[in-house]
Amino acid sequence: MNQAAFAAALLDPDLPLPLGVVDPAGRPAQRRFNIYRNSVTQGLGAALETGFPAVLALVGPAFFRAMALRFLREHPPRGRIMMLYGAEFADFIAGFAPAQGLGYLADVARLEQALRESYHAADATALPAAQLTQMSEAQLLQARFRLAPSLRLLRSDWPIGSIWAAALGFGPPPSQMRAEHVMIARKDFDPKPQVLSPEAYGFVAALERGAPLHLALAQAGQELDLGQVLALLIAADALVGVSG
Predict the structure, then answer these.
(1) How far is C-alpha 94 from the geometric centre of its chain's CA atoms?
(2) Residues with Cβ < 8 Å from 228, sequence gap 6 or more?
(3) What is residue 223's three-state secondary structure?
(4) Is 126 within the bounds of a domain?
(5) Of the candidates 59, 43, 54, 48, the residue with the CA atom closest to the CA atom of residue 10
(6) Nearest 5 degrees, angle CA 26-CA 27-CA 29?
(7) Whether pLDDT at 1 is above 60
(8) Which is deepest, 28, 69, 164, 239, by most CB within 10 Å?
(9) Measured between alpha carbons, how far is 154 from 11 in angstroms, rounded to an integer?
(10) What is the mean pLDDT of the chain?
(11) Helix (H) or strand (E) holding 38
């Protein structure tokens, strides 16, 4: 039996029964294979529904399942661990013709994938807030902060944070379809998206790249409320180290 042919036929009902798939009497076991194929397809589809609940809510079950079926046939699992299956789903949605009327859908999927990645990211001990208060202003300006492995940053031309929240019943629909900058931070193993101002997003992105505080401030611009964004990072356990 060819393993590649078996895997391909498992996800595509238009392919013939793989050679060697027989019943105890040695006859082709098409019916048994169909049942197995159906179970595998349903399992992968359920994994995508669990991983992308906002996308599911936005398009409805029937559309989502049809889209997921196309996706899983083109992108079968590459490993045994299913917790992050669907890493390519957002890019697939971006090129999926029936979804082109929902320009924001792919970015909502990217947000949900980032939430999944954040949940499964490595643990790190949060930086004690008292350690910052003990530093002089000069020390703070030269300091480089290490951010938690679970932190994720996303920028979209669409209000993806607001759309995600509305789709899952966490908030009202966005009043305007304008760009949003989102930070995902995990506190107590519960990653949450937070919409940031462009200035705060630029500041956190600069810290993530390893810039010292004074350069991150310069890149963020004068409109940044430094106290507010630092308080947000501390509250989210997003700062895990400082040096310099």
Answers:
(1) 15
(2) 200
(3) coil
(4) yes
(5) 43
(6) 115
(7) no
(8) 164
(9) 32
(10) 90
(11) helix 30-51
CATH number of the structural domain spanning residue 166: 3.90.930
The predicted model scores a pTM of 0.88
Q: How many residues does the chain have?
A: 244
Output the pLDDT for position 41. Answer: 81
Structural domain for 14, as ranges: 1-102
Provide CB contacts within 8 A for 43, sequence distance 6+.
none
One domain, residues 131 and 40 = no
Please state, for a pLDDT cut of 90, what percent of the chain lies above it.
Answer: 73
Phi, then psi, of 15 in degrees rounded to 5: -85, 150
What letter represents residue 104's amino acid? Y
Which residues touch 67 (CB under 8 Å, ≥6 apart)?
59, 93, 96, 98, 99
Asked if residue 184 lies in contact with residue 115, where contact means CB atoms within 8 angstroms, the answer is: yes
Q: Indicate whether 142 belongs to any domain.
A: yes
Given a cut of 60, whether residue 92 has pLDDT beyond it is yes
Over residues 120-131, the pLDDT tens digits come to 999 999 999 889
Answer yes or no: is 170 within a domain. yes
200 token code pair: 């705060």
Distance CA 121, CA 114 (A): 10
In a domain, 234, yes or no: yes
Structure tokens at 119: 């949940």
Q: pLDDT tens, 93-129?
A: 999 999 999 999 999 999 999 999 999 999 999 999 8
